[in-house]
């Protein structure tokens, strides 16, 4: 028995395959089982600029240290990588990616990363996790949603969750996530609204499972809603 959210059961088999993420219909990955739509596997694709905490967030989701995560002035993750875990009977494939949105990246290098990312998650439904530092909104992030659409298709917004790292900064400022979202910069607020306000916050130095549970609840909502896009 899988994780049921809003009448959708996550936990049965899924034979679907696609050739391109940009033309994928999320419902293609779902089938009917006793009157309920179901999936067994989901790809969580961690995207964002270098230094935002993608690898550390991936490790938090996995519940173990798998991806290399360390302070560095250079990009630490240089290739797309995947690791797997089970959460609430759902098989979760966590895909860590290099910064594919840096304007200084050679187009051939960017194309290679994008191709590999699509190859890694072509056979299962994808939820894109846009990782951003809660205390830093850079010029490079202002048009990141447009870059996502150019890379993965115009419906990417409907499959995206924003994950803010460094949740301890909010605690130190005695702010809730809701307080932060209410007071954030207009450019960031626009990105959040276009993603239908799907946001979670992580403190990657914490080993608590509550933050992962909140993320997976949001992921389940994405899977439920995108299944209706037909």
TrEMBL record:
It comes from the Eukaryota. InterPro entries: G_AIG1, GIMA/IAN/Toc, P-loop_NTPase. The keyword GTP-binding applies. Residues 39-230 form the AIG1-type G domain. Gene3D superfamilies: P-loop containing nucleotide triphosphate hydrolases. Pfam families: AIG1. One of its GO terms (molecular function) is GTP binding. Keywords: GTP-binding, Nucleotide-binding. Belongs to the TRAFAC class TrmE-Era-EngA-EngB-Septin-like GTPase superfamily. AIG1/Toc34/Toc159-like paraseptin GTPase family. IAN subfamily. This is AIG1-type G domain-containing protein. It comes from Neolamprologus brichardi.
